[in-house]
Design brief:
- Helix content is 34%, strand content 28%.
- With 297 residues, the chain is α/β, with parallel strands linked by helices.
- The protein folds into two domains: 3-217, Rossmann fold, CATH 3.40.50; 223-296, no CATH class.
- The strands form three sheets. It has a six-stranded mixed sheet, sandwiched between helices. Strands 2-1-4-5 form a four-stranded antiparallel sheet, with helices on one face.
- The protein is globular.
- The model has no long low-confidence stretch (mean pLDDT 89).
């Protein structure tokens, strides 16, 4: 499986350009798409699942233009939109059974077994007979995840999948995707939650204001932040100064004042300890410092 995005642009009727000459290429495994709200991620996802046409550019799946082969491509897709909705009159298992029918599972016995397997996988088996509109917000999100997975799609696209999930549910979902990514499946995970992009992603990209500003492995993004993340122990007065001068990632109250973690281009003037960055640190450093420096140059 090979997906190529070539020169993709999307301009809405109001003049807003959601995507600006986006070029990407990736294969099987999990690929993370990261960026702040309004970066253009959902527009890109909607184009990739053939719900919206680009202004210009193409998306190719194994060399086939998705706009010219929509029916074939849709048969390969599992999609969880950011604004997932369902038929409120259906019970939980009935909705997933309906989704299975749409995904091509014609054998009723096999489809019922797959419905229960997925409900168990996302932790909804015990509420299979509950009306879907009576589920909690997190449960509804899990039902959306299940409908994206039914039918064994070869391409799984999930847009802000962990919105509304508690930490345990988020970990459960990431583990499900991680297991699926070991097979011949392409998973595209779009999110503004940096922690959702983990080492399970073979590749990732950063979108900002419709532009692709980084592409590579999570490890390569983290590497760019090495030597730029520091821990400081500050008095209340110094803490106020640091907040004005640096990007503060975390703040923990301690007996003497505050333990603060920051990102900075250079060693701060306050006594500090350099620490090993994680992907959240790297994201803040790249978006707030490196991109700004590149624009100045």
């Amino acid at each position: 499986m090979k997906i190529e995005i070539q020169g993709l642009n999307k301009i809405y009727p109001n003049g807003n350009q959601a995507l600006k000459d986006v070029n990407l290429e990736f294969g099987t495994g999990m690929f993370g798409l990261l960026g702040p709200n309004g970066a253009g991620k959902s527009s890109l996802m909607r184009i990739m699942v053939t719900l919206m046409k680009p202004t210009s550019g193409v998306v190719l799946v194994d060399g086939k233009d998705i706009q010219k082969h929509r029916k074939e491509i849709r048969g390969m897709l599992g999609y969880l939109p950011q604004d997932f909705r369902f038929f409120s009159s259906l019970r939980t298992w009935e909705f997933l059974d309906y989704s299975g029918s749409l995904a091509g599972l014609k054998n009723k016995k096999e489809r019922f077994a797959e419905v229960d397997r997925l409900l168990d996988q996302v932790g909804l088996l015990e509420v299979r007979d509950r009306q879907a509109n009576k589920l909690s917000g997190g449960m509804k999100r899990r039902l959306g995840i299940a409908q994206a997975l039914i039918g064994n799609p070869r391409i799984i696209i999930v847009d802000e999948p962990t919105t509304g999930l508690d930490p345990d549910e988020r970990i459960r979902f990431r583990n499900i995707l991680s297991e699926l990514s070991q097979h011949d499946v392409t998973i595209i995970l779009s999110t503004h939650i940096v922690g959702d992009i983990s080492s399970t992603c073979q590749g990732m990209a950063l979108l900002n204001k419709g532009e692709l500003v980084f592409t590579g492995s999570p490890e390569s993004l983290v590497k760019q932040a090495e030597g730029h993340v520091f821990k400081l122990n500050l008095s209340p007065r110094d803490y106020e100064t640091v907040k004005e001068r640096y990007d503060v990632i975390s703040t923990i109250p301690v007996e003497s004042g505050w333990e603060v973690q920051i990102v900075a281009d250079n060693i701060p003037e306050f006594e500090s300890t350099e620490i090993i960055p994680n992907i959240e640190d790297a994201y803040v450093y790249y978006m707030e410092h490196k991109m700004h420096a590149d624009l100045i140059e």
